[in-house]
Automatic annotation (TrEMBL):
A Pfam family this chain is assigned to: FAM194
InterPro entries named in the record: FAM194_C
Recorded superkingdom: Eukaryota
Official protein name in the record: ERIP6 protein
Positions of the FAM194 C-terminal domain: 1-176
Length: 213
């Protein structure tokens, strides 16, 4: 960003690439979006609520209260049931410098504009249908399993915070440290499951509160 804060970072996690968009903050910057080369991506509102969630099968657009505004399926996805809903182009601004354009599964662009210069990141992916003609089924978890996952991520983040405090006793140093990439992606994975799983609104709010604390 013009402030000098990191805006977009691309990291490798095992066999896939992950593009992360961060807030314009000098320390403890929140994550506004995560795009994975496996086809799973999430964009969030400033308050941390899921804005757009995309999987191998399609995606959905949510309002700030968590209600679904629209959903779509990708042309090459194999849906077990339900009608196919085509994608209407989506353009959103994560902040004044970063925007996201979604035109198709392989046509997703993160655009960064500041001080008269622009950078574009193609974060779309084309998932090939297997020989059997089916994509991996979506993950469905029970309420207890989802709550345990959220608590596990929270505990891992607390341990990471503790290591930072021990290694860097000065508050000025560890306050500027960001969570490792694997914790960021695990947090967004739980938020994705929270959005797609058939759970109560009360539990959904509890899970989000746990991982965003």
């Amino acid at each position: 960003y013009p402030s000098g804060n990191l805006a977009v970072v691309v990291v490798r996690e095992k066999k896939e690439l992950v593009c992360i968009v961060q807030e314009d903050k000098p320390s403890n910057a929140g994550v506004r979006a995560v795009f994975k080369s496996s086809g799973r991506s999430t964009c969030c509102y400033p308050n941390g609520a899921v804005w757009i969630n995309m999987t191998l099968q399609g995606g959905q657009y949510l309002d700030r209260a968590g209600s679904r505004v629209r959903r779509w399926t990708w042309p090459n996805s194999i849906m077990s049931s339900g009608p196919r809903v085509p994608l209407s182009p989506i353009f959103i601004s994560l902040n004044r410098h970063v925007g996201v354009r979604i035109l198709g599964q392989d046509k997703i662009t993160v655009s960064f504009l500041a001080m008269g210069q622009q950078a574009k990141f193609n974060v779309g992916t084309k998932v090939q249908v297997s020989a059997a003609g089916r994509l991996p089924p979506p993950a469905w978890l029970g309420e207890d399993e989802l709550l345990l996952l959220a608590l596990r991520v929270r505990i891992l983040r607390l341990f990471d915070r503790l290591r930072g405090c021990l290694n860097f006793p000065s508050n000025e140093q560890w306050d500027k440290m960001k969570p490792p990439a694997y914790l960021i992606t695990q947090t967004f994975r739980v938020l994705q499951l929270c959005t797609t799983s058939d759970i109560s609104d009360e539990l959904r709010s509890s899970v989000r509160a746990i991982v965003n604390a």
